[in-house]
Amino acid sequence: MNKIKKICSFLVISLFITMSFFGTKSWSQDKFPTKAVEMTILFGGTAKTIGEVIADGLSKELKQPVVGVSRLGAGGATGYQYIQSRPATGYEIVFNSNSISTGYHGGSTPFDYKAFEPIAGMLTEVPVLAVKSDKFKSLKELIDYAKNNPGKLNVGISGKGSFTHLASAVAFNAMGVKVNYIPYGDGKAPIELLAGRIDAAIQWPNQFRSFDQAGQLKMLAVTSSKRIKSDPNVPTMQELGYKVDVTMWRGLAAKKGIPENELKILEAAAKKYAESAAYKDASEKIGFEVNFLNSKDFAKKIAEDDAIIAKLSNELGLKEVKN
Fold first, then answer.
1. What is the pLDDT along the chain (323 residues), one digit of tens a residue?
2. How far apart are CA 291 and CA 100, in angstroms?
3. Is the separation of the CB atoms in 185 and 162 below 8 Å?
4. CA 126 to CA 223: how far, in whole Å?
5. Cα torsion 80, 82, 86, 90: sign
6. How far apart are CA 168 and CA 242, in angstroms?
7. 3 state DSSP class of 154
8. Count of CB atoms within 10 A of residue 213's CB?
9. Which of 111, 145, 148, 168 could be joined to 115 by an S-S link, Cβ 3.0–4.6 Å?
10. Which residues pair with 70 in a beta bridge?
11. In this structure, are residues 39 and 95 in contact, taking their beta carbons and an 8 Å threshold?
12. CB-CB contact of 128 with 73 (8 Å)
């Protein structure tokens, strides 16, 4: 009898140890993150500022550091390629944007948006058309000049096939004018306008706002269907009679194959931060529109936007055939 009791006791202890082991393993897996998360930031300027704000907010929600690391170049391709070279994990994410589609359809990257898993959409940025204040006082003046001087208006873009190139093409095509597109590089629009090397540029309001307030540059119109909260006095192109509605989304993504539990934890943290007063305050100060989308809705938005960018790239002669 004693021998049977000893065997039973041994079995109970063994079962307890086994259950404890698997229970601890499961708990450990669900505890993500247990270390710092690295977030690749693709661009400088406003994108970098917003990316760092979001990284700080996610750090607070996840109780682990989220470190923004700039990997700039090739219209976002450098950062996207880095993420694709790494393991599929929630510890390495990217602050993505429409650039995944402009890069692919422009030939900068060999993979499209399907190579990434959407985590959450975080915001919408609305471009604004700006000019040197002593050159044009209104959109009408700009259009009249362009029509009276075909092909002489120089419009700055951050690069051939970039989002600002596509946005500019949509806007000026709607105005019915022919222009020259002049690449100048990220964040240099105000300098190029002030120097007179370009006549107009479509970029983010944050780049132009201080110059507009100082009377050096003038923001003529935004490209969204509604006015933006950060600059409510700037009219939309639709208000001025032109059918234009072009905006940029930005959000979070990881390499395809990220563990489901890690994606869900990141998605929940992004949602909580996106609904915070701190994020709303940052949006008003920097000049972007809060627009949270869960993983599923964000995936739908990216796919819809990719189809539009593919069409525009083809019309501009930028689209390359992928093997």
1. 555 444 444 444 444 444 444 444 433 445 899 999 999 999 988 899 999 999 999 999 999 999 999 999 988 999 999 999 999 999 999 999 999 999 999 999 999 999 999 999 999 999 999 999 999 999 999 999 999 999 999 999 988 888 999 999 999 999 999 999 999 876 689 999 999 999 999 999 989 999 999 999 999 999 999 999 889 999 999 999 999 999 999 999 999 999 999 999 999 999 999 999 999 999 988 889 999 999 999 999 999 999 999 998 988 887 654 43
2. 19
3. no
4. 6
5. negative
6. 13
7. strand
8. 10
9. 111
10. 41
11. yes
12. no
Number of other CB atoms surrounding residue 28 within 10 Å: 10
Site of tokens 């140890």? 17
Is the Cβ–Cβ distance between 154 and 227 less than 8 Å? no
Which two tokens mark 35? Answer: 């270390």
Strands ordered across the beta sheet of 200-203: 180-183, 154-157, 200-203, 128-132, 217-222
What local confidence, expressed as pLDDT, does residue 13 receive? 44
C-alpha 259/C-alpha 30 separation (Å) is 11
Closest CA to 287 of 47, 42, 18, 71: 47
What one-character DSSP code corresponds to residue 234?
S
Domains of the chain: 36-124+248-315 (3.40.190.150), 128-222 (3.40.190.10)
According to DSSP, the β-strands at 128-132 and 180-183 are unpaired
- Outline where DSSP puts E strands in 31-134: 37-41, 66-70, 92-97, 116-125, 128-132
Burial class of 272 by CB neighbour count within 10 A (0 to 12, 13 to 18, 19+): middle
- Torsion angle of alpha carbons 215, 217, 219, 220, nearest 10°? 100
What is the edge-to-edge ordering of all strands in the sheet holding 66-70? 66-70, 37-41, 92-97, 248-255, 116-125, 289-293
Place of tokens 């002030």: 194
Tokens of 45: 């300027």
Contacts of 150 (CB under 8 A, 6+ apart): 177, 178
Are 45 and 187 in contact by the 8 Å Cβ rule? The answer is yes
| Interatomic CA distance for residues 121 and 60, integer angstroms | 19
